[in-house]
């Protein structure tokens, strides 16, 4: 189910009720005219309105565009439903790289200083569900929550974040216009009234068998598809990937570099597993926020008057990958994630990712063989940034956490993933597996759940990814 929110004025109740009357009349006419097809769900399209309709606030369930179709071969998909199913399957996979499409609805509207029409801010109680597109499966009862006012989930991407006013790591930025702002709603639709959705049962799943035969026109070295569901605390991928494997090893590999993994628990878990104890001679872990962190408490209190320094970030990375011990038998898993979403704007983040790709593709001429080759010849794996549970925060409108949003994570992920794919590096996408983890964040504590933690997961959430890495580098 996909939900999209558009703003509606809180002062339009009268017009809202008038519209509801017209809306249900149209639904009745539609159902009468399309009686044979109602078993496949209810679809109401805006083109059915005689008068021009300007949507101010609505919830769209699985609203998709028709020009996003992948060419399929009949031999791969025996069921006639397959092309429609695969169109949406591929749409989802292309979206995780299409950062331009994510930005397009909000062009010139993402700067924090842009004028905001508070009178037309999203109101959960006057919003409507204007389109249903229900696919066969089962029966749902859903409580729908609206998180941000329209456009404001992305604000701060090009301006609004001022690194220098935070501490030395760009954290705890205080913005007078942000502190106390209530644009993060986290409010239930219609005061929490459940929305009941009847979904016709699927006839069969035969078309799922051929889904792996299409790459959805996505040119990228994903280590796995990444999508699936959790069943009784076990990860079940939608289909079993034919995992890529490193060449078979006859001895231990050299060094595994764990760089800027935003989840220190993931790195610590890897260091206790076969990957670091047997497959590689050793694993080096580098803990960073924006810049390297030696002592957690000291880093929080450290202040300076410097703005964000992109070159400083890249220089610390060069020292790792250009270490003579990091040879072709080495590997590095890298992520520039949540700390950058929180503290840097999107313009600076794009510069950083572009610079990172240049560092990893820098070349040099060997003085003995006179052959030009990359300075770092090991395996590069880009790990995407994990999902967050912002609703678990003790103060969901805390000013210096304002720009830590799920939508900005998706945007930053999309740009970074697209560039890593273009450079030919491997990508380990862990956003879906964390976003769907049933227990969510705050589950890493040794003595039970950690209240108000919006970013840290139990090691169980990453175990499938850890096993994937071991299978790949073991080469068996």
Automatic annotation (TrEMBL):
Family matches, as InterPro entries: SGNH_hydro_sf (IPR036514)
Top-rank taxon, per record: Eukaryota
Keyword tags: Membrane, Transmembrane, Transmembrane helix
Name under which the protein is recorded: Uncharacterized protein
Species this chain originates from: Desmophyllum pertusum
Gene3D superfamilies named in the record: SGNH hydrolase (3.40.50.1110)
Transmembrane is among the record's keywords: yes
Transmembrane segments: 16-33
